[in-house]
Write a structure and sequence with these properties.
Helix content: 10-25%
Strand content: 35-45%
Radius of gyration: 14 Å
Number of strands: 4
Strand order of the largest sheet: 3-1-2-4
Largest sheet: 4 strands, antiparallel
Order of helices and strands: EEHEE
Structural class: mainly beta
């Protein structure tokens, strides 16, 4: 089965950073083995939404985070990379 590299953008994820709840976005890369790009996207989405670091703190379960895969590319094999998250603050006043 082929491997896919997926570059993900997450938005509006409530996470605990330095003891405080922050609403953040993030970038991360994941490698998954799947029959197709669409299956790879579904697998990576499930993995990210189930990730312990992205689980909402108590009282924040009603926030609806978003996940977009900006790039999905079939690759020969996964490479050893840091699969952590690069968090960034969400602009709370987007309409201003």
């Amino acid at each position: 089965m082929p491997w896919f590299r997926l570059f993900a953008l997450g938005e509006d994820f409530p996470v605990i950073i330095d003891g405080n709840v922050e609403i953040v976005g993030f970038y991360t890369t994941r490698y998954v083995e799947a029959a197709s790009a669409s299956e790879a996207e579904a697998i990576a989405s499930d993995l990210l939404f189930e990730d312990e670091d992205l689980q909402p703190p108590p009282g924040y379960e009603d926030i609806q985070p978003r996940l977009v895969f900006e790039e999905i590319e079939q690759v020969a094999e996964p490479i050893d990379i840091d699969d952590n998250f690069s968090f960034f603050p969400m602009d709370e006043d987007e309409d201003a």
